[in-house]
Design a protein that fits this description.
mainly beta; Glucose Permease (Domain IIA); 2 domains; 8-stranded antiparallel beta sheet; 5-stranded antiparallel beta sheet; 1 helix
Length: about 230
């Protein structure tokens, strides 16, 4: 059980063995680690999804990192989670997001995303945590490229992120590259979009070769997928 706030939105995650359900935006009425029964109230619905002036629930179902259809296990096939009128409102809200799916950034490595942004069961610490970025599959030694033109803010090493690089971009945006073998740029230097800045590794808290990529706006993490 997870109950908390992610990006100013209340979220409840309930584990059911190898499955988990997510509910948002919700003001939680349960605590992290508590046990709940079927039909038990876990929270109250808040405003947050694009449903005009009404409240509506995002209900998700996942097995590991695989998204499933939550309606597959519902006996009433007429159930609708969103009114038909919500489609236009959702599309308008999506188009208004900064950098939403517009390819503002280029991918730092060519591999696919293997772990998306959001709550996940941490592969090392075996607990639910916010994965504040995306993981790209890439072999050790693969070139890491700057996702956008910017300036090198820091090149460092720490036990969690391993070799870590932070680039600054206009508008208070920063991009963060973790777990590398190393970087070939220095603090204060400028880079162009697509410049090679380092190579993929498996340093820090890592279970194998990959690139963890984070985007922050004014210091707060956002979903990098909206910029790619």
């Amino acid at each position: 059980m997870f109950a908390g706030v992610i990006n100013d939105r209340g979220v409840v995650v309930v584990s059911h063995g190898d499955l988990r359900t997510t509910y948002e935006p919700v003001s939680a009425q349960v605590r992290v680690g508590s046990t709940v029964g079927a039909g038990q109230v876990v929270g109250t619905l808040e405003l947050g999804h694009a449903c005009g002036n009404a409240s509506c629930l995002h209900w998700g179902l996942k097995r590991g990192e695989e998204y499933l259809d939550p309606l597959a296990g519902v006996t009433d096939p007429t159930l609708l989670l969103l009114p038909e009128s919500a489609v236009a409102a959702a599309e308008a809200a999506a188009s208004a997001r900064v950098g939403a799916g517009s390819g503002t950034f280029t991918r730092p490595v060519p591999g696919p995303i293997t772990s998306p942004y959001g709550m996940r069961f941490h592969p090392i610490f075996k607990e639910w945590r916010l994965h504040a970025g995306v993981d790209f599959r890439a072999g050790c030694g693969t070139a890491i490229r700057a996702a956008a033109a910017g300036r090198v803010i820091s090149v460092s090493f720490d036990s969690s992120g391993g070799h870590r690089l932070v680039l600054g971009h206009p508008g208070g945006v920063t991009t963060h590259y973790l777990h590398a073998q190393g970087y070939q740029v220095r603090e204060g230097t400028s880079v162009a979009s697509g410049d090679v800045v380092g190579t993929v590794g498996s340093t820090g808290w890592s279970t194998g070769c990959h690139l963890h990529f984070t985007v922050k706006v004014n210091g707060e993490s956002v979903n990098p997928a909206t910029y790619l």
